[in-house]
Amino acid sequence: MSVFTRTQADRERVLLTELTALVAHHRAHCAPYDRILAAEGFTAASSVADLPWLPVRLFKHMDLKSIADDAVFKVLTSSGTTGEVSRIHLDKQAAATQTRQLGATLRTVLGDKRLPMLLVDSRGILTDRRSFSARGAGVLGMATFGRNHAWALDLDGRPDLDAVRGFLAEHGDAPFLIFGFTYLVWLHLYEVARDAGLDLSNGILIHSGGWKKLTDRAVPPDEFRRRLATDVGLTRVHNFYGMVEQIGTIFLEGPGGGSLYCPDFADVVIRDPHTWDEQPVGEPGLIEVVSTLPTSYPGHVLLTEDLGVVHGVDDGDWPGKRFSVLGRLPRAEARGCSDTYRRAAA
To answer: Can you list the pairs that 224-229 forms with residues at least 24 positions away whose Cβ atoms lie under 8 Å?
Structure first.
């Protein structure tokens, strides 16, 4: 069953009720969250956009959880280039729900059967503790949706053409799943497959992560899709946007490309970074992500440090808002926003 079914009006009606209940739940069970909302003077919301948000960076500075210490089943950490990492606390129920809903989201494009899977990464990533919490955890999490796994990179992170050829010889005549971070897919699968004349036409690519340090090699999304289709036959390509602070919720690129879509249990609000008002369709701003999945910590309404724009509503591959991520907010501005909330929580 698809999780991309609700029109925007229906989505907002359902989400407002469920998220309002979550606000009350977290106020009752997370004292710092209650203090933040009290300092803000929040009492009630008449729309999803009126709900109180937390800056995502706050989770890098505070342990925010709505469960007792002995109920913590798993603590997830984000990547961090300056030593700052988010710590996300899950109990067993929250962990099970996020896994189930992530699976439901991916089944929209993968189907119900687990497919043979080519991982565009190195098995060595699992032993590198410096990066395991982010990249390694992402690879391991996605690996659960495939079978007969093969690694496209060797232990030293170099392309393993023999491994890719062996995988395709065994599984390439039927649908198979490919997962990798965007820049690795481009540098170590696309370019290798193109040069070797490999056929990836039965593949379904799920990718994310942007280009980060390889901005000089970055390829626009339309060009990325066009070259994959033209040069290696890979036409089923789905980018996604998500973060550990809202684990289990991903915003998935539709079959037609060009836009990300919200699953039924989530939404986005684009805010003017100066006034915090909601931006109209076509106007860029800061991305706020909302989701009903965070029940063990107050991550249900988060203001990210990413810039985005809504392109349309109920007019794309799936109903609801369709949007794009444009890049990162300059660090200084985001830190100021976070510090304001940190003082309120103290």
So the answer is: 224/182, 224/186, 225/257, 227/190, 227/194, 228/190, 228/200
Q: Report the C-alpha gap between 73 and 6 in whole angstroms.
A: 32
The H-or-E segment that residue 334 falls in is helix 331-345
* CA–CA distance, 339 with 278 (Å, rounded to integer): 22
pLDDT tens for residues 204-252?
999 998 766 566 777 888 899 999 999 999 999 999 999 989 989 999 9
The answer to whether the beta carbons of residues 237 and 185 sit under 8 Å apart is no
**What is the pLDDT, as a whole number, of residue 80?**
59
**pLDDT for residue 86 is more than 90:** no
Name the pLDDT band for 339 (thresholds 50, 70, 90).
Answer: very low
Cα 301 from Cα 52, distance rounded (Å): 7
Mean pLDDT of 137-154: 89
Q: Is residue 251 classed exposed, middle or buried when 0-12, 13-18 and 19+ CB atoms within 10 A define those classes?
A: buried
For 70, other C-beta atoms within 10 Å of its C-beta total 6
Contact (Cβ atoms closer than 8 angstroms) between residue 85 and residue 245: no
Strands (E), the chain: 54-55, 74-77, 87-90, 115-122, 146-153, 176-181, 203-208, 236-242, 250-253, 260-261, 266-271, 285-291, 301-313, 321-328
* C-beta neighbour count of 123 within 10 angstroms: 14
- The answer to whether 51 and 19 have CB atoms below 8 angstroms apart is yes
Beta bridge partner(s), residue 241: 251
Query: How many angstroms separate the CA atoms of 129 and 175, rounded?
Result: 33
Q: How far is CA 249 from the centre of its chain?
A: 6
Structure tokens at 53: 């948000």
DSSP 69: G
| pLDDT tens digit sequence for 94-141 | 999 999 999 999 999 999 999 999 999 988 877 755 444 556 777 878
